[in-house]
Design a protein that fits this description.
Layout (H helix, E strand, L loop, with lengths): L4 H18 L6 H8 L3 H7 L3 H25 L3 H17 L8 H9 L4 H25 L3 H21 L4 H19 L1
Helix pairs in contact: 1-2, 1-4, 4-5, 4-7, 5-7, 5-8, 5-9, 6-7, 7-8, 8-9
Pfam families: TetR_N (PF00440)
Organism: Serinibacter arcticus
GO molecular function: DNA binding
Length: about 190
């Protein structure tokens, strides 16, 4: 029997839920099978290894992140408002019942030292986010240094909110971002 796209999606979504909730190393392929409802033979026909599945889950997580940021920025007018919308997106995310931090940071923390593929996927996602922020900063005519600072605030807010369990990290990061943006625009 051929694996269908819906099997693929069910496997990735189930693995994403389990890895995010429990941690990658704590979840075996049998748990993914049970959660997805896809027989183990078809699961392995789609993903030859847990590592291959994890990389696909990270790509899935990246798409969720990108679409969330895009949706938050869609109603914002101008690069400054779009930059601040990132922190509004984070604030809403941090307040969800299932927030457990950044999936990329979590995966890197668990496996980045032993899996070059996980490390590369995490670095790729973080770099893509910095490029997104950098493009908006450039559109404002501010220094590229501001992009690194704003991305660092967002990354730090994710880690702080996950560890502390307090979602206000996004509010504080947004206030700091406003200060940095305004100062950068004064000197631009």
């Amino acid at each position: 029997m051929t694996t269908t796209a819906s099997d693929h999606d069910r496997i990735v979504q189930a693995a994403d839920r389990l890895f995010y909730r429990r941690g990658i190393q704590a979840v075996g392929m049998d748990a993914v099978r049970a959660e997805s409802g896809v027989p183990l033979k078809r699961l392995y026909a789609q993903f030859a290894s847990k590592d291959a599945l994890l990389i696909e889950v990270l790509h899935h997580r990246g798409a969720i992140w990108d679409s969330g940021i895009a949706a938050a920025a869609a109603s914002a007018e101008g690069p400054r408002a779009k930059l601040l919308a990132v922190y509004d997106f984070l604030d809403a995310w941090f307040r969800t019942d299932d927030f457990r931090g950044c999936g990329f940071i979590n995966a890197f923390g668990e496996l980045g030292a032993v899996s070059s593929e996980v490390a590369a996927a995490a670095r790729e996602q973080k770099l893509a986010f910095q490029h997104y922020v950098g493009a908006l900063v450039a559109e404002m005519g501010a220094s590229p240094v501001l992009a690194a600072q704003l991305a660092l605030l967002a990354e730090g807010a994710q880690t702080t909110a996950a560890i502390s369990g307090l979602p206000d990290a996004a509010i504080h990061a947004r206030a700091a971002a406003e200060t940095l943006i305004d100062a950068a625009l004064l000197t631009a």
